[in-house]
Backbone:
């Protein structure tokens, strides 16, 4: 039995699909602050199997204890947390209390019930803006915003807990830029309000909800002056969690792994790929750089393959095809 925190969210719901398809029994907790329980109906439609769902916040110790008293979990896949970079700069206390205290509460209850395995949703944002890509897991880390610091602090918490308890089994997954949607078009990324991230914003332009895309800077030292990122299909990312789970079944200690494709694409290259996949013109406006952005970031993905036997299979065209398919049906 696997507990998925934040399992009604974008990456969480796609991971539930892969877990169910692989034969795992899945329990999901989510506070539904940034997602809807209906996404689990779509997960059932895709897989033909159900997750058990509890509306519980990771900060709710009693609620967590009740869930752990009803099920025996081999492992927790921990997605739950606030994740908007800009918002974290406006509301740092909210981010630190929710993300750090929430994870400490979760770890306390896990320990009480003898659950020693955790796959943690970290982020490539921990590489900061002082490293040259491709990023490797041994590079120095730093952050430029409270959201990123909460990820790095949680990595440190989990590392120290595993040092103190030799039975702990921890995989820290550093995601690059997850985009796309399940090919069924039943689940995908549909943030509330105006999207912060590139591809959901492009989706809203493609379906006519927004007039054009602001390109944040075209004077970076990159192929065409616009920001370069390592976009990874959310289904590939979800399969990376399955590989991490299988690793934990045989290994204790802490493993830190990049989940990226190893390929970087510029903003304008993504716009072109999306226009081709959707058949829609995406008008752009060159705007000033966005504070905190790095010029270029992409993964050295070799450790994931060496340790987990996982590598991304889908390319930018499939990512844009599936993002458009979802946007045209569900956004
Ligand atoms: C990608 C590129 C922008 C929007 C962040 C977080 C990371 C993770 C993913 C949570 C950049 C450009 C964007 C737009 C643009 N989040 N852009 N116009 O900033 O690489 O990563 O989201 O886990 O932790 O740091 O992703 O999609 O916001 O930006 O030109 O309207 O697109 O400048 O070059 P980012 P992004």
Residues:
């Amino acid at each position: 039995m696997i507990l998925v925190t934040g399992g009604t969210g974008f990456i969480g719901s796609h991971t539930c699909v892969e877990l169910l398809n692989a034969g795992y029994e899945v329990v999901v907790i989510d506070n539904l602050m940034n997602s809807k329980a209906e996404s689990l109906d779509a997960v059932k439609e895709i897989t033909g199997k159900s997750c058990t769902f509890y509306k519980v916040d990771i900060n709710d110790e009693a609620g967590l204890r009740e869930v752990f008293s009803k099920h025996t979990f081999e492992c927790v896949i921990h997605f739950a947390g606030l994740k908007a970079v800009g918002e974290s700069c406006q509301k740092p206390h909210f981010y630190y209390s929710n993300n750090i205290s929430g994870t400490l509460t979760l770890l306390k209850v896990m320990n009480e019930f003898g659950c020693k395995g955790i796959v943690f949703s970290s982020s490539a944002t921990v590489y900061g803006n002082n490293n040259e890509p491709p990023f490797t897991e041994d590079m120095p880390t730093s952050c430029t915003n409270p959201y990123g610091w909460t990820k790095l602090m949680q990595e440190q918490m989990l590392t120290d807990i595993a040092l103190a308890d030799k039975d702990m089994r921890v995989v820290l997954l550093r995601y690059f830029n997850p985009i796309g949607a399940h090919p069924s078009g039943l689940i995908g990324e549909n943030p509330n309000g105006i999207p912060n991230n590139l591809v959901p914003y492009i989706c809203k332009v493609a379906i006519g909800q927004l007039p054009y895309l602001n390109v944040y800077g075209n004077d970076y030292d990159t192929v065409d002056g616009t920001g370069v990122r390592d976009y990874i299909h959310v289904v590939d990312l979800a399969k990376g969690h399955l590989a991490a789970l299988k690793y934990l079944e045989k290994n204790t200690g802490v493993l830190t792994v990049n989940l990226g494709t190893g390929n970087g694409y510029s903003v304008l290259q993504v716009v072109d790929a999306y226009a081709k996949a959707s058949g829609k013109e995406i008008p752009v406006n060159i705007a000033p750089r966005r504070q905190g952005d790095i010029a270029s970031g992409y993964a050295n993905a070799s450790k994931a393959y060496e340790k987990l036997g996982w590598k991304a299979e889908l390319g930018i065209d499939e990512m844009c095809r599936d993002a458009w398919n979802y946007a045209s049906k569900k956004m």
